[in-house]
Design brief:
The protein is 40% helix and 16% strand. The protein has eleven helices and nine strands. The two termini are 31 Å apart. Bound molecules: phosphoric acid mono(formamide)ester (CP).
């Protein structure tokens, strides 16, 4: 089997606490001292293989690699032979050219197949179950704002999805408590083993009722939301009926000025946001919002992940 001893980032569940904390600490240092890292990956290449659109993950990867002294190559899945061939064959070939691969694939099983075949570290760039690059950025953003992770109480509101899973896994590694107030779990994302482990560790709670929000948010340091509808379905006519059902169901869970009135908490969203759905547009610019800092931090964090996977010296 190829690549079995390589550290990949398919899900945060597989990373040690030390890997997670070192990456968070280094991402903050990279933000403060970017020049110190300007040749850290000189001569190395990052390939970005995407089945779905992206702004942050793609740009943070390409620009971050340039800032580390390396080179990045973007591959739109549809313009390659990945769709015609065996995934393992194609990934094995790509990994013989590139030193790192970010793979944004629809299915987590395909991310695992890619990691199994690859001779270079694979970073999951967001699949149906996890978004670990986002989770590490979120830890960085919370740590930067609050000066700690252990004991922080983060409440995630909306549909329990890939981003929520990565927050729960991130909390489990760092002692950050995650409460999900979600009327529905995205069926493709459901990870009962993760929820059980985090719950047993006292780091995860789940509720389904909008009436719980006021009390839970009053105890929270951070409120976090994400789209109610996966981005590939948002404008899909075949998804229109389901979209209307979700909007009606999730409307009471919208992050808006009334909900967070007088609350001392930070507001996060992984973006892209759908204004007027999961969050009102004014909340992105609220003094409590860290949303654009969080988006910027994707760059610093993704550079730190590359260095962690490269086992780069301090
Ligand atoms: N949050 C996030 O992954 O953004 P993109 O889809 O634009 O990469």
């Amino acid at each position: 089997m190829y690549g079995t001893s390589i550290l990949h980032l398919t899900t945060l569940k597989d990373w040690s606490e030390a890997d997670v904390l070192r990456t968070v600490e280094r991402s903050i240092d990279i933000k403060r001292n970017p020049r110190h890292y300007s040749a850290a990956l000189s001569g190395k290449t990052l390939a970005l293989l995407f089945q779905k659109t992206s702004t942050r993950t793609r740009c943070a990867g390409e620009i971050g690699m340039t800032q580390l002294g390396g080179h990045a190559l973007y591959l739109d899945w549809r313009n390659t032979n990945f769709g015609l061939a065996d995934l393992g064959d194609e990934v094995r070939v790509l990994s013989s050219y590139a030193d790192f691969i970010v793979a944004r694939l629809m299915q987590h099983d395909d991310v695992l197949r890619a990691a199994e075949a690859s001779t270079a570290p694979i970073m999951n760039g967001c699949c149906n179950r996890y978004h670990p690059l986002q989770g590490l950025t979120d830890l960085m953003t919370v740590h930067e704002a609050l000066g700690r992770l252990e004991g922080v109480r983060l409440t995630y509101v909306g549909v329990l999805n890939n981003v929520a899973n990565s927050l729960i896994a991130a909390g489990l590694k760092t002692g950050m408590h995650v409460t999900c107030i979600c009327p529905e779990v995205n069926p493709a994302a459901r990870d009962e083993a993760l929820y059980s482990e985090a719950s047993a560790a006292g780091l995860y709670e789940y509720g389904e009722e909008a009436e719980q929000l006021q009390d839970v948010l009053a105890q929270s340091d951070v409120v976090y939301t994400d789209t109610w509808i996966d981005m590939e379905f948002f404008t899909d006519p075949a998804f229109a009926e389901e979209k209307e059902r979700r909007i009606a169901l999730f409307q009471p869970f919208q992050i808006n000025a009334d909900l967070v009135q007088n609350l001392d908490l930070k507001i996060l969203h992984c973006l892209p946001a759908h204004h007027g759905y999961e969050i009102t547009g004014d909340m992105l610019h609220d003094p409590r919002s860290l949303i654009f800092t969080q988006a910027e931090n994707r760059l610093h964090s993704q550079k730190a992940v590359l260095l962690q996977l490269a086992n780069a010296p301090e």
